[in-house]
Design goal:
This protein has helices at 2-25, 104-110, 115-132, 137-142, 145-159, 179-229, 232-247, and strands at 26-29, 33-39, 44-45, 55-58, 64-69, 73-82, 88-99, 165-176, 253-256, 266-269. The chain is an alpha+beta fold. The strands form 4 sheets. The protein has a 3-stranded antiparallel β-sheet with strand order 3-2-5. The relative contact order is 0.08.
Length: 271
């Protein structure tokens, strides 16, 4: 009986040890992740091979796998930076980033798992200070947001070159100026708008004036041409034709031939 108890205990111990070994030798890499293998009995972090891809992997029980999210990720940053004339500008931005999948091992070895705080955030803040520091507040207010975003992205990428991470996009959500500066800019923009509107009205009035002048000149030219073409003979002929047409109507009338001042017929009707 005692021997049986010892055998059962031995079997239980072997099973437990087997479970522990199995748990430490089977690694599951999830969707959108990559694993960095650390070999304490070898060369440490494996950097000369591809990171472990999605799925099941069997490793030596004394090795360790560090799992990284290699999908595109995002963070929101609220920053206060100085403009070119020393005023505080508050800027809200969203940063899209991810580690470079083929260099996960080097990222883990050189920078570590906290690369977001150590690399990306400082680089974005430095780039933002540099870009905003080139502009005056009124320029930031009127400048196209896309231009600021592109400059921030270019400078951030330059700072993170050869750092095993990549920034895909920087989106500026809001730029807040001091209220006094904002009010002054809005007043200036309103005055500029009113000035443009006044210029538009003047231009419209000038065009209408030109249209009327051209129309009047056309009428005057037509009248001159008509006057030059209306001779006495033509007028008499027109009068005779009109008299003939009127004489054909059913209304009673009296036609006196050649009794007008110009020798034109005179028609006397009932009235």
């Amino acid at each position: 009986m005692e021997k049986l108890s010892k055998s059962v205990v031995a079997i239980i111990i072997v099973v437990i040890v087997g479970i522990i070994i199995l748990a430490n030798t089977v690694v599951t890499i999830g969707s959108g992740e990559a694993g960095v293998l650390f070999e304490p009995l070898g060369g440490g972090v494996v950097t000369d091979e591809q990171a472990l891809s999605e799925g099941f992997h069997i490793i030596a029980p004394w090795n360790t796998v560090y799992v990284y999210n290699v999908r595109q990720q995002s963070i929101d940053e609220k920053m206060t930076v100085l403009s070119s004339n020393g005023l505080d500008i508050k800027l809200d931005a969203t940063i899209w980033f991810q580690p470079q999948p083929n260099e996960i091992g080097l990222l883990h070895q050189k920078r570590g798992e906290n690369y977001l705080e150590l690399l990306i955030k400082p680089a974005v803040r430095s780039a933002t200070r540099s870009v905003v520091g080139r502009y005056k507040p009124e320029e930031l207010y009127a400048q196209k947001r896309e231009t600021i975003q592109n400059e921030m992205l270019e400078e951030t990428r330059a700072l993170l070159e050869n750092q095993y991470v990549q920034v895909n996009e920087i989106l500026v959500r809001d730029v807040s100026l001091p209220q006094t500066i904002k009010d002054a800019i809005e007043r200036k923009l309103k005055q500029e708008q009113e000035s443009l509107e006044y210029e538009f009205r003047l231009e419209k009035a000038e065009k209408e004036k030109q249209r009327q002048r051209i129309e009047a000149e056309g009428k005057a030219a037509a009248n001159r041409i008509l006057s030059a073409s209306l001779t006495d003979k033509i007028l008499q002929e027109k009068g005779i034709q009109a008299t003939i047409e009127l004489s054909k109507s059913d209304n009673s009338k009296v036609i006196v031939i050649g009794s007008g001042d110009s020798g034109m017929p005179i028609i006397l009707g009932n009235n």
